[in-house]
């Protein structure tokens, strides 16, 4: 064989990239590593890299080395934009409970081997060991917390840490303005109960997180779905129209950063417009920033709350996706409804037990938390690229996908109005769980969409599942 | 001095009983101990005891030795019985929030040195050390619980233990019928939301736990107060009348065992009648058994749920008062509303985080829990006797008091329509916090009552506070 050494080396890595062993966005082994691992000269290693770069397979980033480039997915179109002027569906009482029960019942009839429906990262991505140590420290230091009165609003240590961390999101909060809750879900419940009553109409994104539809249904409120762009988030233009035609709109709920299911982030200018618009119309703005910390690039997106000057924005957030899915901690700051929210929290579940709060405050106040966040962001970003790449390769032509810059979700638009309900059922029969688009709206508008989670460690099993899914979609009616 | 030795010994203990150093219901040192401590003969010790017995100061209990007898409090009349035929106040939207805020605001303006307003026992009465160990064991054994998905409805281990423990209360429940909640408060919220809507009317006891009034207010429901006996609890006759005049009554909430604030227990026959009556009228019966485990005599009172054959009773309970005030754990079983309640729980706060549940299951499944309960019951019983005795001694003649057989509360009826609001303010000025009767009703019917907690270790400071309180009451208008 007279293939030059550098080319054989390049081929070796070309195969790795093709099989996915080296995933898009992953770092190539450094030139030094190549030299050491393959016992080649520096110039051979450099030549191999340049060859891969010329082939468009990897790209150099200043001072960071080479990274694998996304391949197929760059060829996909982003998900379709909604028409912000489309006539709105009427505000409706939500009937999501039946859809979700049905979904769960169907899931339970099958053994699931790959769960792509879960909006959470693998347990391995979270700092269980450090949290365990923090719990042990906290309970050793103050065992009486287990049997003494619960501090009101949340433990002062945690509220202090949260107030400090909120600065990075552009919010200036006193610890006293923070209320600790049982997850973001409880926070959103309290926010809605504070500003609206049963029968009232609430504007939500479309598509929207089905958990929010469940909350609205359980509170007997109506949802008005506002067109939402896969790239720019809630259409403020469409909301403005809706406010004109629905003068009794009580509140708007928005997930401005890495929305579920779209993954979109609202541009700063739109966030500012949204805050001002709601203020002008005296409509409460409830912001759910569950995914805010999960940006790819360590550049935090500001909260809409940071444009709020009158207390019209209720900001809700969570430690669920970023730190500890098993601890059920969230928090909120409720602006001008703060005392009403505190009253409702007390009447609904009393204040949160302190132990977990102290442990989490300890961890969140440390540098280890920042290191964990960077790691988690990198990990989720790579996994998102991997899932997207697999979709691009295995799903039929015409599949569309917008690439979020954070979060752990991908919103896939199937070509030719294929039914995601059908795809869901067929996938389930093969042990693969996905979230069909129908779960993200009161309407059937998203029937040809599906949501894939990128939170799980990307295993060969997941790679296989995505290939299988691709052929199910290709053959679906 | 020729006072015989046995008489000097008797005088010594007579003084101790008078000062309260030896409290009512407390055990006298055994005859052997007297022999050893005072270096007297067995016959001298026996003679001294017989003398105290003849004086009515102590009483012998078979195989347990001598106990200090209650003195003054036996002379007090029980609190007045309500007239079960009195015309009901109209069902009303609750306005308790203002009263409670006002109460809290007033409390916050004063330094409190003795808190008799708190319906909880001293932290020292709870097994903090054992719970700490159980927490550490649980987090060491399964640190992934902190970062993994939360098991639905509650952790299976805890639900198993609760189902076994429920047998003692006469309930036969499968673990699957149990839902773990954030305290009894969340359970009662979910129960009310499951069976009723805003605007609906709910029958409650009168006087009633103000926490329940807060819940009703926060849910926009109306309260209909049903006369309740300080001895026998909710008047089923009065409820029957109310059901005739209020055909749209949606639910009844009852605290059948050691009611807050009365401390009363419904007789079994009344519990059975209540269950049957609600069933017949198709009105949901919500039972709050927060204090059920706190019986003086280790004889558990059956839950009303044990008379339920059709799923019409929702049973709610808590580990707050009996095990761990700082852990915020409660549970419920919702009969025919079970799946609706599970849906509401999921939409309201998701299911409870597992770690604390595993630790509590570990402890509640052990013999140590039974030992703790016996200790706590004995302790609280003695403290209740001590507080009652102090009330009997220091409050003006005409003060009335029913003696509960469990729980940690005393409901004191002041003579001559004295205002408990005034007593509250004057006590507060002296650093003593009590709960005025006005907080236990929508009406002003209980303005001349106050609730005293007996949960705290009976210190000389508390003894002093009760003396002070007595003179405040004596001088009140
Ligand atoms: C937008 C959004 N909000 C809230 C939640 C849940 O929040 P938590 O688990 O903190 O209650 C989720 C989880 O899926 C979510 O996607
Ligand atoms: C009758 C009654 N129910 C419920 C509660 C509170 O229950 P938890 O702390 O378990 O939410 C109390 C506490 O004061 C109470 O007295």
UniProtKB/TrEMBL annotation, chains A, B:
GO molecular function, one term: DNA-binding transcription factor activity
Signal peptide (residue range): none
Alphabetical UniProt keywords: Aminotransferase, DNA-binding, Pyridoxal phosphate, Transcription, Transcription regulation, Transferase
Domain HTH gntR-type: 3-71
Pfam families: Aminotran_1_2, GntR
Coiled-coil ranges (or none): none
InterPro entries listed in its UniProt record: Aminotransferase_I/II_large, HTH_trans_reg/aminotransferase, PyrdxlP-dep_Trfase, PyrdxlP-dep_Trfase_major, PyrdxlP-dep_Trfase_small, Tscrpt_reg_HTH_GntR, WH-like_DNA-bd_sf, WH_DNA-bd_sf
Keyword DNA-binding part of the UniProt annotation: yes
Keyword DNA-binding attributed: yes
Superkingdom of origin: Bacteria
Family: In the C-terminal section; belongs to the class-I pyridoxal-phosphate-dependent aminotransferase family.
Protein name: 2-aminoadipate aminotransferase
Biological source species: Bordetella genomosp. 2
Organism taxonomic ancestry: Bacteria, Pseudomonadati, Pseudomonadota, Betaproteobacteria, Burkholderiales
